[in-house]
Amino acid sequence: MSLSVTDLTITVAGRTVVDSVSFAVDDGGRIGIIGESGSGKSMTALAVLGLLPDGATATGSIRLDGRELLGRPDRELARVRGSRIAMVFQEPRTALNPIRTIGRQIMEPVRIHERLGRAECRARALELAKLVALNDPEAMLSRYPHQLSGGQRQRVGIAMALAARPQVLIADEPTTALDVTIQAEILELFERVVTQLGTSLVFITHDLAVLKSIVETAIVLDHGRLAESGSVHDLLAHPTSAVTRRIVDAARATSWTRPEAT
């Protein structure tokens, strides 16, 4: 088992925002976390990374390959973040440093976690730029975030997350800020890179149509509680909770579907 979350409960200023949530993802596996705004999806992801905001506390268990992460000192968790578990954030514009080049930002996780030389870091950055299909990757490394489109910035965010070759990739609403056409391209990119690298994926979204295109099983959160879980097909076809029925009703059509195996 790659990542296992058991009875995770998060409180902020005495208010419970995540209540006894459990899920697991195998090595190379994929799971979705879906819910409406305020359901606790992002707080769950931040707890896994040890990045909860000040004033928030978490209990339960978060294990990576059997090793407990919850309650570990931040210095230890800093070695895990990026190298073992990495995250792609919802809004790439705010996730990137506006005064650093794209190449420098992709190289940083490699420099921190693998202590490679500058030439080796740049070679890895170029390799990643090609992996995420950035146009003219050599030139792209010298550009700044404001010179890129939203889709290009999200590709950079994915490259940064994959830079130190993490075991688990968490994607927190990575297509929400993008138009439908670019959404399809980013979903196809996720499908390709996690398959190619064998990375475990936790994909967070509010859109079941998007979720269906990238994972097969999911949990549904409602006001911090686990409302239901199962295959995405069953959640779409036979939702049992009121929140899942609302999400199904609101699901947007998407033209992208997982490519057939060859």
Automatic annotation (TrEMBL):
Q: Which UniProt keywords apply?
A: ATP-binding, Cell inner membrane, Cell membrane, Membrane, Nucleotide-binding, Translocase, Transport
GO terms of molecular function: ATP binding; ATP hydrolysis activity
Q: Does the keyword Cell inner membrane apply?
A: yes
Naming one, the record's GO cellular component terms include: plasma membrane
Q: Which residues form the ABC transporter domain?
A: 3-248
- Superkingdom of the source species: Bacteria
The record, for InterPro entries, names:
AAA+_ATPase (IPR003593), ABC_Ni/Peptide_Import (IPR050388), ABC_transporter-like_ATP-bd (IPR003439), ABC_transporter-like_CS (IPR017871), P-loop_NTPase (IPR027417)
Question: CDD domains, alphabetically?
Answer: ABC_NikE_OppD_transporters (cd03257)
Question: In terms of one coarse class, where is the protein primarily found?
Answer: membrane
As for subcellular location, the record says: Cell membrane
Provide the membrane topology annotation: Peripheral membrane protein
Q: What is stated as this protein's family in its record?
A: Belongs to the ABC transporter superfamily.
Q: In its UniProt entry, what is this protein called?
A: Peptide/nickel transport system ATP-binding protein
| Organism this protein belongs to | Paramicrobacterium agarici
